[in-house]
Structure formats: structure tokens, C-alpha cells
Amino acid sequence: MAGGKRSFNSNGIAKDEPQKVKISKESLREALILFTYLKPYRGKFILALIFIALSSLSTSIFPFLLGKMIDAAAPGVKVSQLQSATNFGSQLGVNLIDVQWGLNTIILLIFLQLTVQMIFSFMRVYLLTEVGEKSLADMRTDVYSKLLSMPMSFFTEKRVGELSSRISSDLSQIQDAISLTLAEFLRGIFTLFIGLGFIFWISTKLALVMLCVVPIIAVLAVVFGMRIKKMSRKAQDQLAESGTIVQETFQGISIVKAFTSEFFEVSRYTKSVYSVVETAITNARYRGAFISFMIFSVFGAIAFVMWYGANMITTGELTIGKLTMFVIFSAFVGGTFAGFADMFSQLQKTLGATQSVREILRADGELVELKDVQVEPEFELKGNVRFEHVAFSYPSRKDIVVLKDVSLEAKSGQQIALVGPSGAGKSTIASLLLKFYEPDNGTIYFDEKSAKEFPLSQLRKQMAFVPQDVILFGGTIKENIAYGKPNASDKEIIEAAKKANAHDFVSKFPEAYQTIVGERGVKLSGGQRQRIAIARAILKDPAILILDEATSSLDSESEQLVQEALENLMKNRTSFVIAHRLSTIRNADQIVVIDKGIVSEKGTHEELMSGNNLYKKLNEMQFEFSN
User: Fold this and answer.
1) Same domain membership, residue 352 and residue 474
2) How many Cα atoms within 13 Å fall on the side-chain side of residue 466?
3) pLDDT (average), residues 468-477
4) Rounded distance, CA 608 to CA 586, Å?
5) Domain termination site, one of 362, 386, 411
6) Average pLDDT in the 312-328 region?
7) How buried is 268 (Cβ within 10 angstroms: 0-12 exposed, 13-18 middle, 19+ buried)?
8) Distance CA 303, CA 170 (A)
9) Residue 109 is part of which domain span?
10) Are 561 and 527 in contact (CB under 8 A)?
11) CA atoms within 13 A on the CB side of 540
12) What is the CATH number of the domain that holds 277?
């Protein structure tokens, strides 16, 4: 995926910018595909384009009327007032450039032109914004839906910030392209052609003189501009580097102080900052030369054109009003040329953003339902699970085999404990049960049917997962419990909370179930978060339950309450418990010891403790440690 470039603004805050890509046939084709999101709004989009053209035309009439006003006020010029609509029409048909109107008529025409232009400008801005916002909302929804359907392997390879950037900055860049850049580009094209048409209409000779000068200035401006942009980018990258030094230093401030590295960090930061200064000063030389050149060139060109035009006035080839028109139209043309350079840069950013978004939309996701799932009778689980010779390696590190040959079985309603050394593959078994990944070899069966026969969403709908590090969402306690069953009634939510030993502490909060838990549940203690997560799982009422030891990091009082809640949760349902604290799984129906990717032992607690094996050694080590 084409990632955005991280830079720092003047306040030192990091920001992601869409990456620029070269304009090519392929990148333009990618961008045009995203314009399919405009199809539902194509009527308003076409109307907006018409208003852009009309707005450009009405804007171009203003210099024409201004020139006519100057000619009308010039001494010695014969003025024939507008007598009737018929006379006005005949004048339009003969030679509009030589038509002479009175001052009162011209001021009325100017205000009429401004009124019409105001309406056209309003309509183009309103319509393009509406089209841009609605198409962007559709695009955001599709990208977000696609990201949600991506497999777990995708999220292990991507950073959350990068994915957030795709939805925020990249899509905003595309929206700006639709509602702003595209409008300005088309308006610039219309203004350019209309402006060139007018200056040739006013005086072909003067237009050719002007066009001999302007391209030279434009080419030199582009050369200077590219060099300045390159230097600015270098300064921005160096500033980002200094910002990174600050971020790293403050994040590891305890290490910095412990190793008395303050002087080293100051030296490192100073070196980085002064490299920015050197680049900025070099850039200032180019900028100063560019500004000086542009002042000399632009004003020199204007002076030359005015001098040539003044000579044409003295010979009677031109009027003062026409020269005024010519200068203003020339400014329009020059300003449009200058604007195209920035539009080109914006186009490159848009193509980069488009490429990133298209990569997401083209990616293969999981076959999950993006609607409320109702379990069909034929896929309803009783809770029987069987692993048959399952082998697995994570996609990102295929050279490391996590599970080599795992076979185990759980009958409906049984509690299966998974124990073993760290890294043995216990959590991987949980991930395979939830179908976060597919086994490389072997088969997982649910009720003697291969997992592949079940629609993914219907299978996961009948499972619940309570991790050790509980993730709560930033809403209310009620919303977090109801996450397991969004349409649950208040009575069902309270009943689930009671079974999870959560109702008592929730009731003590001033806002009870409407209490905001904060980001990731930060306003609740570890034990409270665990009980909310258990209530969420109880409310879902799954056929299969997967628990990553939920009491290992709790104090004794919280552990007892959570353990009681877990026992309520595991009643009458198949449970897989990843156990770190072995004292909590002594009553399990079957304890499965995973070691080096295989099932090395299995049986009840009493059966395993009667032999000389790994389970017994792990028990003895924990007992000694606790004492």
C-alpha cells in the first residue's frame, strides 16, 4: 500500500500527507475508477460543471465592462446611448468591441453581471460540495466496510495509524479533488480560453507581443519553483527527524536520565535542528532570487505591454478602455497559468491517495456478513469441536512452525484447558477456533462438519472470546455489555451483569449503566473491565466460549469475583480456557498440554499429576513461586 508521508507542522505536531505519485496513464485510470462514486449524483455534478463554465464566462465580462466604462468617461469620445432592446441586439450582432454605452448603462450592466456571477458561483460551490460530500461518505463507508472484512493477517502487517490515515487524510484528499481542485482546474481552463479569446479579440498584435514574453517567464518560474519545492521538502523531512528525536527522548525519558544521556540527546537534537537551519537558509537564497526575478519579470512584462499598448493608443489603434481590458484579461491568463502548478501538485497527491484507497478496495477480504446475522438452523452449533492433525504457521513468518500436529477433541458442554510454556501455541489454537486464520494442514470440525462448511459470520456468531487484556469501547457500560447482543433489553443487560458479578459496582456509579467507560475502559479497574467483558459474553449466549486467562493480573478480591463470573459463564457450554495460572483449571474436564507445537499430554488434573510430566513440573514451579 502506498503510505502517506509523515511531516510536522509549525507546532511540531505530526501529520500524514498523501504520497505524491507520477501522473501516468495507469494512475489516471485508477483515479477515474473512483469517479464511479459520482454516478448516483451525476445529474447535479453535470449541472455543477455547467455553472463552473457560466461562472467563468460571467467573471470575464467584468473587465470588458470596466474597459467600456473607462472609454465612456474618456474626454473626446463620442457616446451613443442605448436606445432600445432592438438597437442593443443589432450592436451585439455587428461589433461588440466597438459598442459605446453611457456610464449609467454600464454601471447597471456591471451590477447585473455581478448578480448573475454571484448566483452562478453559489450554485457551483453548493452543488460540487454536495456531490463531493455524498460521494465521499459512500467511499468512506465502502473503505471502512472493506477494512472490517480484512483477515487478521492484514491487521498484523498494518499500523492502526496508517489505516486511519487511509480513511481520513487520503479520502479527504480525494474529496478536495472532487469539490475543489477539479472545480478550480475546470474554471482555470474556461478562464484561460475565454481570456485568450478576449485578448485576441481586443488586439491580435498586442496579444502576440504578450504571448512572446509570458511563456519565457512561466518556464523560468517553473524551474525555480521545482528547486524551491525540493529544498522545502528536504527541510520538512529534517524537521520531521528532529520531531522524532523529541518524541523518542520523552518516551524513554527514564532511560535517558538513568544513563545520564541528557548531553548526548541535546547534542543530537541541536545537530538535527541546525541542519534544518542550513537547508532553510539555502532555500531562502533560492526563494529570494525567485521573488526578485518574478517582480522584475512580471512588472517588466506589464510595463513592456503597457508601453506597446500606449504606442498603439497614440496611433489610434487602441483606446484606453481596451488597453485596460487587455491588461486585466492578461492578469487572468497569467494567474491561471500560475495556479496550474499548484493544481498539478494537488493532482499528484490525489493520485497517491487514490492508489492507496484502490489497493484496499481491491484486496481480498473475509466472507463476513455486513448485516445483522441470524443463525440458520442447519448451522446451529451443539458445541462439539475436534482438531485433526492441525499444523499452522503465521503468514508473516512462514519459516516458524507454531503448530506441528495438533489433535484434540471437546464434547458439548466440556471445559478444555490449554496449558504449556509461553510460545507453545495456545493462543494460536484460539485464533484458529475463531477462524482468524486457516490451518496450513489438517481440519477443524464443529459437530463433525468441517469448519469450511460454515459461513464465517454464522460460526463466529455462536462463539464468544474473553481476552486477558480486555478491550472496551469508549461508550457507556450498557453499550459495552450490549455489544454481544445489540438489540438486548435493559432487563437482559442487567441479568447478564448480575451473572458476571458486575451489577453491584455498576449500580454504585451515579449514572449506573449510562456511565462512560472512557477510551479502552480506562475509567474502570482491571477487575471491573473483566466483569463487563464477561457480561458481554454471557449476553451473547454462545455455544463455544474461548477464555484467555482472565484472572492472572488481578488482585485476590477481584480474582475471586471474576472467577465466580467465569464459572457462571462456562455453565452448559463448551469452553476453551488458555490457562497461565494452573490453580484455576483443576476442575477442567480435560487439560491439554501444548509443547513445541504438539499435544504432549492430556487428561484430568489428577491423571496428569500422577505421572512425571511437564504439567506436574509447571504446577510445582508455580507452587514454589507463590510461596
Assistant:
1) no
2) 34
3) 79
4) 10
5) 362
6) 79
7) middle
8) 44
9) 5-362
10) yes
11) 27
12) 1.20.1560.10
